């Protein structure tokens, strides 16, 4: 099967075939390949993500009542232990910050830590039943 490229489209254009028809024919008659795309790997990552989203966390850390510095130390130890134990999913309970004046301090600390941690991956808020915006889940890389 011949792979088409932009040069083929230009040749068809110059020979009187409209750009729209040339592109339509190209897409209908040939598969366009992305040499960098590995569809099996992409599919596996999607399946793994769905599995992790629906699974319970491997470990939970509650940092309610800690100072920003205390929370940072606890997070550092928690993530280090999780990585050493090959955990995949963590839950951090930080509270919603209802008693914080201004921005929720512990939520901000958790977000900042996740951004800096080299083995913290995707993260998000838990479902309402698990704490909602008062708890964060994290996948480890």
Task: Describe the protein's architecture and organization.
This protein is α+β, with helices and mostly antiparallel strands and 141 residues long. The chain folds into 2 domains: 1-33, no CATH class; 47-140, Ribosomal Protein S8, Chain: A, domain 1 (2-Layer Sandwich). It contains 5 helices and 4 strands, in the order αααβαβαββ. It has a 4-stranded mixed β-sheet with strand order 1-2-4-3, covered by helices on one side. Strand 1, helix 4 and strand 2 form a beta-alpha-beta unit. Helix 1 (6-14) crosses helix 2. The longest helix has 17 residues, at 68-84. It is elongated and about 75 Å long.
Summarize the structure.
By secondary structure, this protein is of the alpha+beta class. It has helices spanning 6-14, 19-29, 39-54, 68-84, 105-116, and strands spanning 59-62, 89-93, 120-125, 135-140.
What's the structural blueprint in terms of helices and strands?
Elements: H1 6-14, H2 19-29, H3 39-54, E1 59-62, H4 68-84, E2 89-93, H5 105-116, E3 120-125, E4 135-140
Helix pairs in contact: 1-2, 4-5
Tell me, rounded to a whole number, the average pLDDT.
80
What structural class do helix, strand and pairing data support? alpha+beta
CATH class bucket of the largest domain: Alpha Beta
Unreliable residue stretches: none
Radius of gyration: 24 Å
CATH topology of the largest domain: Ribosomal Protein S8, Chain: A, domain 1
Shape call: elongated
Strand order of the largest sheet: 1-2-4-3
Question: Strand fraction band?
Answer: 5-15%
Work out the number of β strands.
4
- Whole-number tally of structural domains: 2
Which range best describes the helical content: under 10%, 10-25%, 25-40%, 40-55%, 55-70% or over 70%? Answer: 40-55%
Number of helices: 5
Q: Mind describing the biggest β-sheet? A: 4 strands, mixed
Order of helices and strands: HHHEHEHEE
Task: Using the 3D structure, state the CATH architecture of the largest domain.
Answer: 2-Layer Sandwich
Distance between the termini: 39 Å
